[in-house]
Specification:
The complex is a heterodimer of chains A (470) and B (200).
Chain A lengths: L7 H9 E4 L4 E5 L2 E4 L5 H10 L9 E4 L16 H17 L2 E3 L9 H8 L7 E4 L13 E4 L2 H10 L1 E5 L2 E8 L8 H12 L7 E6 L1 H4 L3 H9 L8 E3 L4 H7 L8 H13 L10 E6 L6 E3 L7 E3 L15 H11 L14 E4 L1 H4 L2 H11 L9 E4 L4 H9 L2 H7 L3 E2 L20 E4 L15 E4 L2 H10 L6 H4 L1
Helix pairs in contact in A: 2-5, 6-8, 13-16
Chain B lengths: L7 E4 L1 E3 L7 H4 L19 H7 L15 E3 L12 H8 L4 E4 L4 H9 L4 E3 L2 H13 L5 E4 L4 E4 L2 E4 L4 H9 L4 H6 L4 H8 L9
Parallel strand pairs in B: 2-3, 3-4, 4-5
Antiparallel strand pairs in B: 1-6, 6-7, 7-8
Classes of the chains: A alpha/beta (470), B alpha/beta (200).
The complex binds iron/sulfur cluster.
The site of iron/sulfur cluster has 13 residues of chain A, from helix 12.
Chain lengths: 470, 200
């Protein structure tokens, strides 16, 4: 294929191909490997059993995010198991000579928040991490995959993976976002449109005026949820915004190296005549704030819609809708607005960055969290927390009745003490509304933008954030 | 590194109906708090089983000792946790037949030598019915012949060629294959401008 017809994925794939393997598999070099405490300890054990060293320790970076408590990160951690997992990671990284961003350095955070903010995530890279939301890093024009533990072992041992090249679906987002409609609503709309299995076998390339007008942080939100649409990776072509974001970050190149980097980064973008396996267009002008009501991220509606009738979907999808209604305790035809909530969670790798907290704070300051609601704000990283503190955001949240916590994954998957109890309903800025996802086997999650979570928190029920923006 | 050839898997089936069964359900997050996979098998589908109050296929006497799971569409979606296939492997399963599989789950299974094969919707529902009726009868997943076989009927299975080759040849354990590239790995790294810090 002529170079101008190559899309970003093909360019990056070709540059990182070590060799073709039998069948449809490629041995791909992985430029950046990120690890955390949950999916890597077993990989290090496997490596030890094989008596193999880490091949490129300088290309792997570690942090703790999933199990870390958010009330106090003081060591030893109150939870013995969490302390054991953290120590295992500290030991393995120290032995291998891998850089670890621990809380004591002020560099800790959710793995998908710190990669970008440190300038580790760059255009034209291949990135892997033992976490499905690695797709987040595609916001920079990187090809980023979530992998399992055996593959973490492979990357540690060889800096490579065997992968089949995905097809590429270009998703063009046209129109203009109305006030109160955020990046989160765009990606929820895409998943609603294409389905949770629609992306299997594809990489999603997001583009068009709405995506191009987005800040890097908004793009991170969109790419983050690619995996919820079944696409293992999603990306956005690097442009001026990408380059500006990277300038002056800890791991960004400097001086003449910066100039060469910029040329490489711009060069990996899909050419104007690039080939795509499929194209889809979504007009965003009519989008309203969205809320999920079911048990997968495809089951969402606009805030002003009524819950769908079971027979409104194809016969094949009806059992899953019925299951969702039974689990959520909701009924077809009801409005979602006004649904009472017990918990509000602002945070996660989807929406735990500084711009998310700023938007949420604007809404939070207009009211007071009622006594029946527990509201948590969990910054995505220690750097986000510092920035928020410099802007006085914790005071705004606290004054409105929110708890301000330390950085981590927290109630996104509740591997730390932050959990739902019983059948509590949680308005959440995270990415998954699966059964039991937030720590209680019967807990219920409604996904929405951070501003919508803040609105739900101060009103005690699912609300239309647009009313608070006027 | 052990390299086991997977030409066919024989045994008995267990039917788990439903689509989009995510890895949070296969192994809830609280059981990821561990530094080895040793104990994850005990907790497979723990919350689903609890909620089904004995009515879950994993608690169905007729499926006791089954080693091939039959599942719906998009099985294993969600989190990348290898704890999910590890939990199922450690509770005795060594192959999956379904409508479709989420990609990371599929990759994790392959890395463990567990084939995930797909059937067309019609064939899958016929197989589910057949195994529901005759859970004690032998079920065979034949990768060589590309066929799933139960009670005298064969259904054509699909699996990507490259993965099938890896399983048939015993090269599914990727580390050994990847190491086989030798210095080509370093050579590829040197060609990438960012690996050398964009030095001239
Ligand atoms: S914030 Fe949630 S989705 Fe993101 S890495 Fe942590 S647990 Fe995973």
């Amino acid at each position: 294929m002529s170079p101008t017809r190559k899309n970003l994925l093909d360019k990056v794939w070709d540059a990182h191909t070590v060799r073709e393997l039998p069948g449809d598999q490629t041995q791909l070099f992985i430029g950046l490997h990120l690890i955390h405490e949950v999916t890597s300890p077993q990989a290090f054990s496997m490596l030890r059993e094989m008596d193999r060293p880490v091949r490129f320790p300088e290309r792997t970076f570690a942090t703790v995010d999933h199990i870390i408590p958010t009330e106090s990160q003081a060591r030893p951690l109150a939870d013995d198991l969490a302390e054991e997992m953290m120590q295992a990671l500290e030991r393995s990284t120290a032995e291998a000579g891998i850089e670890m961003f621990g809380p004591e350095k002020g560099e800790q955070g959710i793995v998908h928040v710190i990669g970008p903010e440190m300038g580790l995530t760059q255009p034209g890279m291949t990135i892997a991490c033992g976490d499905s939301h690695t797709s987040t890093h595609g916001a920079f024009g990187a090809v980023a995959f979530g992998i399992g533990t055996s593959q973490v072992r492979d990357v540690l041992a060889t800096q490579c993976l065997t992968l089949a090249r995905p097809k590429v679906r270009r998703i063009e987002v046209t129109g203009r976002l109305a006030s109160g409609v955020y990046a989160k609503d765009v990606i929820l709309a895409i998943i609603r449109e294409l389905g949770v299995k629609g992306g299997v076998g594809f990489a999603y390339e997001y583009g068009g005026p709405v995506i191009e007008a987005m800040t890097i942080e908004e793009r991170l939100t969109v790419c983050n949820m690619s995996i919820e649409g079944g696409a293992r990776c999603g990306y956005i072509n690097p442009d001026d915004a990408t380059i500006e974001y990277l300038r002056g970050r800890k791991y960004s190149p400097e001086g003449e190296a910066w100039d060469r980097a910029e040329a490489y980064w711009r060069g990996v973008a899909s050419g104007p005549g690039a080939h795509y396996d499929e194209r889809v267009t979504l007009d965003s002008s009519t989008l309203a704030p969205s809320v999920t009501w079911g048990i997968n991220p495809e089951q969402s509606i606009s805030i002003d819609e009524k819950l769908p009738r079971v027979d409104a979907v194809s016969a094949e999808n009806q059992p899953s809708i019925e299951e969702a209604y039974a689990y959520m305790g909701l009924s077809p035809g009801e409005p979602i607005i006004g649904t009472k909530i017990d918990v509000a969670f602002i945070g996660s790798c989807t929406n735990g960055r500084i711009s998310d907290l700023r938007e949420a704070a604007k809404i939070a300051q207009q009211g007071q969290v009622p006594a029946h609601v527990k509201a948590l704000v969990v910054p995505g990283s220690q750097a986000v927390a510092r920035q928020a503190e410099a802007e006085g955001l914790p005071e705004v949240f606290r004054a409105a009745g929110f708890q301000w916590r330390e950085a981590g994954c927290s109630m996104c998957l509740a591997m730390n003490p932050d959990k739902l109890v019983g059948r509590e309903v949680c308005a959440s800025s995270s990415n998954r509304n699966f059964k039991g996802r937030q720590g209680s086997p019967t807990g219920r999650t409604l996904l929405m933008s951070p501003a919508m979570v803040a609105a739900a928190a101060i009103r005690g029920e699912v609300s239309d954030v647009r009313e608070l923006l006027q | 590194m052990s390299e086991v050839i997977r030409k066919r898997i024989e045994g008995r089936g267990c039917v788990l109906r439903g689509d989009d069964i995510d890895t949070d359900r296969i192994i809830p997050a609280r059981f990821l708090r561990c530094v080895t996979f040793d104990d994850v098998g005990e907790h497979a589908f723990e919350d689903d089983r609890e909620q089904a109050k004995g009515d879950h296929p994993f608690d169905d006497e007729r499926y006791r000792g089954a080693n091939i799971m039959i599942v719906g569409q998009n099985f294993g979606c969600g989190s990348s946790r290898e704890h999910a296939p590890q939990a199922l492997m450690r509770s005795g399963f060594d192959a999956f037949v379904g409508g479709s599989f989420a990609e990371i789950f599929f990759g994790n299974c392959t890395a463990l030598g567990l084939p995930c094969v797909t059937l067309s919707p019609g064939d899958l529902s016929a197989l589910m019915d057949s195994v529901t009726v005759g859970p004690d009868e032998q079920l065979k997943v034949d990768l060589e012949a590309r066929e799933v076989h139960h009670r005298g009927t064969g259904w054509a299975l699909a699996i990507p060629d490259g993965i099938r080759d890896q399983l048939l040849e015993g090269t599914w354990n990727a580390t050994a294959v990847l190491l086989g590239a030798g210095d080509a790995i370093e050579e590829t790294a040197k060609r990438l401008p960012y690996v050398t810090g964009f030095s001239a």
